[in-house]
Fold this protein.
Amino acid sequence: MAYQIKVTISRITPPIWRRLRIPGNITFYQLHRILQVAFGWLDYHLYEFDFGDVVIVEPDPEFEMAGLSKERVELDPREALVDQFFDKYDRCIYTYDFGDRWEHEIKIEKKLKDTKKNSVPKCIDGAGHRPPEDVGGIGGYERFLAIIKDKKHPEREEYLAWAEKDTKGRMFDSEYFYLPEINRKLLHVLEDDVDSALRLFKGRRGLSGTLKFGWYEPCVETENGTYSWERIGDLLTWLCDSGYTITIKVSKVRKNDI
């Protein structure tokens, strides 16, 4: 089965939300990855899915879950399947970052047929840009917005520069939402991870193919598909700060190879 869901970050006005179409035969870890991409989170904090009597949470021995009742069932997000719960429940709370505590209300709006089209996650609609990572929760976000909206505030430029980590260099805009950008990233979200990045870049040939210019950026055409510069960057992000080195080398295509 597949599902249409609406996901809204709680306690923020105007609402920041996404309407998504997702397959049901995925794990909650994969749903977490979809939500991270759909909202643009940077995925370096803990998370949970709360169904009331069941909580799906990645265990962390260094972090004690505040307020987590021992009477509730805990499941591993890498093992629990979305179908098992979305077929039974009509909503849940996805919390990302137990410090800032961003709660996302997930409503299951429709149950869909399990088709090839529905096997690829897609954002159908939405609004707003999520808050910056580590901004300090709702209160910190309200202060951040007040400062960047005040062009005379002495800390405005500093705050805008700090938030570039969340926008890839754009000026932060709380109303920014661009559907094609989200769906480009969702296209490969279920296949791109640290393991696929290692297979691609540490293989015998590494990422090897023909360098071309796509619609708006360079891309590499390989035997197994085309990798945009954006996707290559996202894959390399999985390997950052892990002690790897990288070599970029180009050579002319020989005539007998054409």
